[in-house]
Amino acid sequence: MYLSQLTARNFRQFGDGDAMLHIYFQPGVTALVGRNDSGKSAVIDAVRYALLTRDQEFIRVQPEDFHIDNAGNQASEIYILCKLADLTDAEKGALIEYLSYEGDDVILYVTWTARKLSETPGTRRWIDLSVRSGIDGAGPPFDTSVRELLSATYLRPLRDAEREMSPGRRSRLSQILSNVPEISEGESFDSANIPKDADAVGKLGLVGLSDYMRHNVKNHTGVGSAQDTINKQYLTSLSLSGDELQSKIDVSEGGTESARLRQILERLELGLLDSTTGNLMGRYGLGSNNLLFMACELLLLGKEPEGLPLLLIEEPEAHLHPQRQLRLMEFLQQAAEREIEGANRAVQVLLSTHSPNLASKIPLTNLVLLQGRQAFPLAKDHTLLETGDYSFLERFLDVTKANLFFAQGVLIVEGVAEAIILPTLAKLIGNDLTEHGVSIVNVGGTGLRRFSRIFQRKEEGAQRIGVPVACLADIDVMPDCAPKILGLVEGDNDVKWQNSKRRWKAVRDFGDNAEQCKNGLVELRDRLKKNDGQGVRTFVADHWTLEYDLARSGLAELVYVAACLAKNENSLNEEKKNREDVVAEAKTRFSTLKSCSGDDDEVLCSLIYRLFHSGSASKAVAVQHLSELLTQYCENGGINAAGFRKLLPTYLVNAIDYATAQLPQQASEPASIDGGEDV
Known about the structure:
The chain has 24 helices and 18 strands. Helix 5 packs across helix 9 (257-265), helix 14 (416-428) packs parallel to helix 22 (619-637) and helix 18 crosses helix 20. The chain is elongated, with a radius of gyration of 35 Å. It has 679 residues and is α/β, with parallel strands linked by helices.
């Protein structure tokens, strides 16, 4: 069986009605992703409260567990429902009196409620707890033994793995090992039939080995001699007549066989071996301790023949470098699919993470995004992603893009140039992207819509994800003068052209007159925005591409200087040329270029773009130089944020403003909305 659904009402961040928590889980690994304070830990704790945990930690309900609404009113009752599905015949038999039936499905519901009896937590009975079966809690209450059968394994955040794996009374290692079936196997020790060789000793169980060791210790010459000396030379002189004192040196151990086995296990510790010497390492890092701890817990879950195989992990990436994180994720997926040698069953893993490494490794269908006190599963039938989109994102949703799951706003761009320049532009207009928690996702010219549909819900009327997602798209329409300037046509400039390498068109390709061209461009913009809706909006370039539009907006000279610096990048790096000389020469050439263009902005900016089109100036390198030039331009020219806004293309300003805005949490509209440039 596995946890298939969780519902929580009036628990911490999650309120009542539309504010309730509803999550549907898949078998295998499910990852909760989202920003700090989005409710990831609350989800894990809701499962812990309802099902309990294997470490036998006493869970005490706190006053802050009761939800407080926006008006400051605190709820008086918490309701948590766990739905367990896909029970085996053996599990159905063991839990028959608690089961519910939904058509052909046999379900186990665990309904946990906490009702306040007093506003003073210090009183002996300030809450009433109830754990019953049935979707409405109308079934019989669970026995203690049944709750133990349903308890989950929990790895808390900031865990002290070294302490957990160290010897001591009720150590976690001893608890885990005591539940491994092979631990109790083996023969008992018989003092009348002492093992004579290694094979006979090897057949003894742990308790038998302990008894065998005790026997040998007691019969050791040194121990016997010390015992005789204490008794004859000292205790005899200290004894009274009729009250002789006698000592016995023995291994401290007693009680029933199970108690003795527990004492043995509590003396064991788990350590790492040095890979070069094979000896036990004296000290090792927190990350290695963490892996040891998880491996041990998975050993227990995989080998147990019964019970709920559910592992709850908060921040599994703790203390692990990125490569170890990816390796860990592969291991957890193998455990979830029963691909680990010796495992008797698959393990369900529910984890919370802030790691883009882990988020990029887990299938998108197994992610749940926590945002705005709501849980949004990203599985099929919950998003507008199609089957092909999931396959595409499995390949291309890497660690550099997975940070979108933790962002307050997202800018999806088609190239590295936009990804480099946008943080500088945003800062200069007063909307620092870092300050607003905005992530830039560079899709490299493909998949713009696929990535944005992650944030669009399929269910009509469902709560929408309150993350503003701004998609930046080039319109890829050149001015009519550009084809000839770029060498794309031969002869007359009015001859239509085709370019197999780029999807570019010229303005004249949309009609024979100005009105037709205008209408054609409007239709093209509408097509680029047709998939907008909910929190996703597309912002289309005002004219052509990023570099051309920046030049057309009033930054032509700076764009040209940046292109010249990029063209001379190798000479500058090799110190064959001086940066100041390149800048001065570029400004002189720009003046000549401007005079030759006859003050025609389309011609001038097309001539500037020719530097990029020819391949001699790298766009990525150019925008790096442009970022520096723009910062100096604003500082030296005393241009404030409001003034700089007027120098930028409208679509860039509006996209930045939108991505850094706060979206209201509201129901998803069934139809697309306009994604125009006006905000």
